Input
Amino acid sequence: MPKHHHTIWTLPDGDDDFSPRWRQVKSAFSREIAKEERISKSRLRKQERGIWRRRFWEHTIRDQEDFRRHVDYIHFNPVKHGYVQKVADWPYSSFHQYVRLGIFPEDWAGVGDCEFGVDLG
Output
């Protein structure tokens, strides 16, 4: 998504330290794009790019139903924000992998489809 993104990660047992992982993702991505954004003095001192929010929000998935709701939310998000009319129209989504695996039909949550009831387990 142009202004934000969502991820679901499986971390090693006993490990819930998201911060260094996000730092690595942001660093790798930032090195690959031109430095054209405005960078504040504060960000310059901390060697931060202006393309990233400083914070992230985490949520531990509680069970299969919680996982399903989050996957549904992530897949529908580009439609919710008006970037596409149908979930299948967003080319950067893991939705396409779910279609290839037979978990979702190609027309899942399309125009006028507000139901997210898909069994992933």
Notes: The radius of gyration is 17 Å. The chain has four helices and no strands. Residues 61-121 form a domain with the Alpha-Beta Plaits fold (CATH 3.30.70.1290).
